[in-house]
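Posting this for the archive.
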Amino acid sequence: MEAFKREEKIFLLLAITFVSLLIVSNVIAAKLITIGGLTVSAAAICYALTFFLTDTIAEIWGKKRTLYVIKLGFFGSVLSAIFIKLAIYMPAASFWTEQAEYQLILGANIRIVFASMVAYLISQYHDVWAFHFWKEKTKGKHLWLRNNFSTGASQLIDTIIFVTIAFSGTGTPLLAIIVGEYIIKLIISILDTPLIYMFVNLIKRNVPFIDTAKNLNSTI
């Protein structure tokens, strides 16, 4: 029973972290930054980490739980967008003079959230499908392969859809941002490979009764 509670706590922690990163990504995505000469959204690194989390969850708990977390993320993002929009249009106090700046920063959030959610649903569902496709092909072996193959393709899908919807018609160099964001996300995907091994092994050691055979979680 104690091990079961520990498993649920770990799952809940990963799910909360995933939803938090997703909501933060939606809020900060409107700002464009430069990393190593590449122009990317400020949310590039933050959002890239969500794929690391879904792959970790998929490896341990399987497809059903991973899709549940993705749905939670969608609900959290929509809910945050609604309350941000309400906050913008709520009557400001007479002495508060920052309404224009407040609206300028958060007003773009709705378009960003829409772009993010379309890209998010398509890319995350693809990631889960691709992860389990490669898991079955490799009979549960070679975690590094399914992590990088599924994430690499999904990040490309996500980046193209998000940048196109979020920044079209704004005078922003779309191709430069797509290339820049994808390079950054791909680097993160490669660098997080040792981390996913560490997380998966750590969770399995702390929750020994996890049915690895059921989820094709054999030798990695």
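Helices lie at 2-28, 44-61, 63-89, 99-107, 109-137, 143-167, 174-191, 193-206. The domain at 2-206 is CATH 1.10.1760 (Arp2/3 complex 21 kDa subunit ARPC3).
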